[in-house]
Recover the amino acids of this structure.
């Protein structure tokens, strides 16, 4: 089955720093989503981005489908950005189910 | 807009008891998914429905688990009998599968503890 690998597994930042999270996947996808799991366990949709580039405030994401990777950029990080960031992909002919990576745990220190 | 609604939010039960988790998808969505999150295995799909029909239940761990979707606005995931290894957070998600844009939205989850 498709493999989804995220890096780094852990990241500690000082408030105000920038960071880049990476998601590699092993097959063609028709869905790619980035989620933030906050400290209360909720999965918050960040981006639906099977290809191209999107921006939402301090966050942006780029997916290069032909090279099978996606990047999530966090600029001017805040303590509220702490939590786990998941990349999840869906592939053709497998309905809508998502395959999740193992996540990047981000801790932003004040 | 109401998001995906799950109940209960927390459930503590004893081994051997029946557990029923409930989910109301976003109105208008035609696909519903049940996922489980554990420390060991991360987030994994258990089963999903399209237009109320189960499409893929290959992630259901064993016969103790069953799921139903009697109508477009309600689904249940049942564990009978429950075991301590079933302790996890169970998420329900829904999407509108249009072939073009099929973004999934997740509920708040049910944290299940089996003693």
């Amino acid at each position: 089955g498709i493999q989804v690998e995220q890096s780094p597994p852990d990241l500690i930042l000082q408030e105000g720093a920038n960071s880049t999270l990476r998601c590699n996947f092993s097959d063609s996808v028709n869905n790619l989503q980035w989620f933030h799991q906050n400290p209360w366990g909720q999965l918050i949709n960040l981006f639906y981005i099977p290809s191209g580039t999107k921006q939402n405030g301090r966050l942006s994401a780029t997916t290069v489908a032909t090279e099978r990777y996606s990047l999530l950029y966090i600029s001017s990080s805040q303590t509220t950005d702490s939590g786990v960031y998941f990349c999840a992909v869906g592939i053709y002919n497998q309905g809508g189910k998502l395959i999740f990576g193992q996540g990047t745990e981000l801790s932003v220190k004040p | 807009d109401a998001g995906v609604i799950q109940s209960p939010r927390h459930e503590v039960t004893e081994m051997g008891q029946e557990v029923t988790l409930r989910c109301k998808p976003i109105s208008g969505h035609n696909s519903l998914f049940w996922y489980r999150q554990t420390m060991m295995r991360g987030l994994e799909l258990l089963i999903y429905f399209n237009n109320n029909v189960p499409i893929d239940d290959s992630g259901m761990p064993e016969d103790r688990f069953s799921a139903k979707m009697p109508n477009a606005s309600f689904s249940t995931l049942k564990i009978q009998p429950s075991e301590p290894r079933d302790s996890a957070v169970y998420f329900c998600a829904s999407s509108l599968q249009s072939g073009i844009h099929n973004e999934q939205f997740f509920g708040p989850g049910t944290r299940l503890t089996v003693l």
User: Anything to note?
Assistant: The mean pLDDT of chain B is 94. Chain B touches chain A at residues 31, 33, 35, 42-45, 48, 50, 55-56, 89, 91, 93, 95, 97, 101-106, 108-109, 111 (CB under 8 Å). Chain B is about 0% helix and 55% strand.
